[in-house]
Design a protein that fits this description.
This protein has one helix at residues 48-58, and strands at 10-16, 19-29, 32-45, 64-67. The chain is an alpha+beta fold and 73 residues long. A hairpin with a 2-residue loop joins β1 and β2. The N and C termini lie far apart (44 Å). The model has no long low-confidence stretch (mean pLDDT 87).
Length: 73
């Protein structure tokens, strides 16, 4: 059984109040970097551990960015 993984080259984890939001998409097109990245979707998680686990499944570790909100909560 051959299962192909859908790898994205842009993944951002941000904290918003009591949840973690994982946004994912593409930041390059035909080898060229594009700005802003093309957002494909997002998911919310109740803990940072769950969000990071999901992010590692869909994107390489070098493409994952962690952002905290400005209040640090």
């Amino acid at each position: 059984m051959n299962i192909t993984k859908n790898n994205y080259d842009y993944c951002e984890i941000s904290k918003s109040q009591d949840e973690y939001i994982v946004k994912f998409g593409y930041q390059s097109y035909h080898g060229k970097t594009i700005f802003p990245p093309i957002m494909i979707g997002d998911r919310t998680f109740s803990s940072e551990k769950k969000a990071l686990r999901y992010a590692k499944k869909i994107a390489p570790p070098t493409c994952i960015k962690m952002n905290k909100d400005k209040y640090g909560t």
